[in-house]
Design goal:
276 residues; alpha+beta; D-amino Acid Aminotransferase, Chain A, domain 1; D-amino Acid Aminotransferase, Chain A, domain 2; 8-stranded mixed β-sheet; 6-stranded antiparallel β-sheet; 8 helices; 14 strands; 26% helix; globular
């Protein structure tokens, strides 16, 4: 672990005060970055998204150079042969001072993350409670910001696990698919890789999904953004939940309906550089 202004510290070193509003209110932002060959992948897009999140929260994010240096400090002793995740975290800091608390944490991958990549995931739909277009005109809903307020995300995953599934696909109250608690929806239909439009819906713009669609031509596919209803995914050639950490996890069942394995999953993993 590395702390801004302090450098590398042991993983069990306390870095948050009891009055830090990141703890008291979830008031802060973070990014999770895939570490491969000892280096952060797609680091620039992640830093750009972190800056957008900070702007939406009115949070004083340190300069990009300071975050790059912090990540480098955390990675200095990392085994390049180990696949892992770097989490950059910035809270608003102690309630009285308002000085941000910024630190970086490195963790190796767990077996569950790798299993989802290799074996796919069973997914249940669940309403997020908003119409599809509710968040963009309501900045206080923080659409598109990657905040520390992940209680709903984790509750959704626990609910799915309690019902025999691995993950959740959130839907709008008017019936459109949105995103997963920790991943972006991508599907292949008639030669085009699609994802849900972030600006129109207020979902988090996925960095890995964006890179995948930008390079879809390498696999002979077109790319686009569109709204989709979960029932329409039944006829798609392939459906994936794509994240920076897990990569493309193929949806093998949706609301109990089993999907035929997609032949394209291996090609997506290879293109994105995720080992299976």
């Amino acid at each position: 672990m590395a702390v801004l202004g302090r450098g590398v510290v042991p993983a069990d070193t306390p870095v948050l005060r009891a009055d830090d509003v990141g703890v008291l209110r979830g008031d802060g932002i973070f990014e999770s970055v895939h570490i491969r060959a000892g280096r952060p992948w797609l680091f620039d897009p992640h830093l750009a998204r972190m800056a957008r999140s900070a702007a939406r929260l009115g949070l004083a994010l340190p300069p990009r150079e300071a975050l790059v240096e912090l990540a480098g400090q955390a990675l200095a002793g990392w085994d390049p042969g180990v696949e892992g995740a770097l989490r950059l975290i910035c809270t608003r800091g102690p309630e009285a001072s308002g000085t941000p608390t910024v630190f970086a944490v490195l963790t190796p991958f767990g077996s569950g993350q790798l299993r989802g990549r290799r074996e796919g995931v069973a997914v249940l739909t669940a309403s997020l409670g908003y119409p599809v277009a509710a968040r963009p005109p309501a900045p206080w809903l923080l659409g598109g910001a990657k905040t520390l307020s992940y209680a709903v995300n984790m509750a959704s995953l626990r609910w799915a696990e309690g019902h025999g599934a691995d993950d959740v696909l959130w839907t709008s109250t008017d019936g459109y698919a949105l995103e997963a608690p920790t991943a972006t929806l991508v599907w292949l239909d008639r030669g085009t890789l699609w994802t849900v439009p972030p600006e129109q819906t207020g979902i988090l713009a996925g960095t890995t999904a964006r890179w995948l669609l930008d390079h879809a031509g390498d696999l002979g596919f077109a790319a686009g953004e569109t709204l989709v209803r979960p029932a329409e995914l039944a006829t798609a050639q392939g459906v994936w939940l794509v994240s920076s950490i897990r990569g493309p996890a193929e949806v093998r069942s949706l609301d109990g309906a089993v999907r035929k394995p997609a032949a394209e999953t291996a090609a997506l993993c290879d293109l994105l550089g995720f080992a299976r």
